[in-house]
Design goal:
The chain is α/β, with parallel strands linked by helices. A 3-stranded mixed sheet has the order 1-4-5. Strands 2-3 form a two-stranded antiparallel sheet. A two-stranded antiparallel ribbon has the order 6-9. The longest helix has 16 residues. This is 1-pyrroline-5-carboxylate dehydrogenase. It comes from Kickxella alabastrina. Its EC number is 1.2.1.88.
């Protein structure tokens, strides 16, 4: 389902509203992302199972790419690609506790994270143990495409300061809080009532 769904994504110019996905933004982004894909293509512990094609002949187009890796510490699991590349590591159910630990320690980045599970205890455990791993954490929902005005968004760790544009808390970044105390009763001494 994952592979067939990925391969069905229609890609092309954004002038055609039937296209789900356009090109990446510029040559620098294209070069960075395609270098990750080439790394996967040449890595012994990676297999490209969907996508992997790209061309900059008429825009910077990169097909959505899924990479399967046997190593949870692979470069593609640690570095922030910021492009249409998803790296998957399959683990046994019995390894759930260990994989949560691995997720928490593998990368310095923390823009978004997600867990998909029918077991409520699994979602609570993952959410609790991965508390400081992502600025935005999703449960049974996609972790891309936050909509301005509907969801505050911001990354933590090496992915940002975790400010949340779209949240009233962001206002603190642009103001300097000031505290003022005014007493309307003349001061008759310096001691506190407890000193009397």
């Amino acid at each position: 389902q994952l592979v067939s769904g990925t391969e069905s994504i229609k890609q092309g110019p954004i002038t055609d509203p039937t296209n789900f996905m356009g090109p990446v933004i510029n040559q620098a982004a294209y070069d960075k992302i395609t270098n990750f894909i080439e790394y996967a293509r040449n890595s012994d512990d990676c297999e490209i199972i969907a996508g992997g094609q790209f061309s900059d002949s008429e825009g910077f187009y990169i097909r959505p790419t899924i990479v399967l890796t046997t190593d949870p510490h692979n470069k593609l699991m640690k570095d922030e690609v910021f492009g249409p590349v998803l790296t998957v590591h399959v683990y046994e159910d019995a390894q759930f506790e260990d994989i949560i630990e691995t997720i928490g320690e593998t990368t310095p980045y923390g823009l978004t994270g997600a867990i998909f599970a029918e077991d409520r205890l699994a979602t609570v455990e993952a959410s609790t143990r991965l508390l400081h791993t992502a600025g935005n954490f999703y449960i049974n929902d996609k972790c891309t495409g936050a909509v301005v005005g509907q969801q505050p968004f911001g990354g933590s760790r090496a992915s940002g300061t975790n400010d949340k544009p779209g949240s009233p808390a962001l206002l603190q970044r642009f103001v300097s809080p000031r505290s003022i105390k005014e007493n309307m009763i003349p001061i008759s001494g310096f001691t506190y009532p407890s000193n009397n």
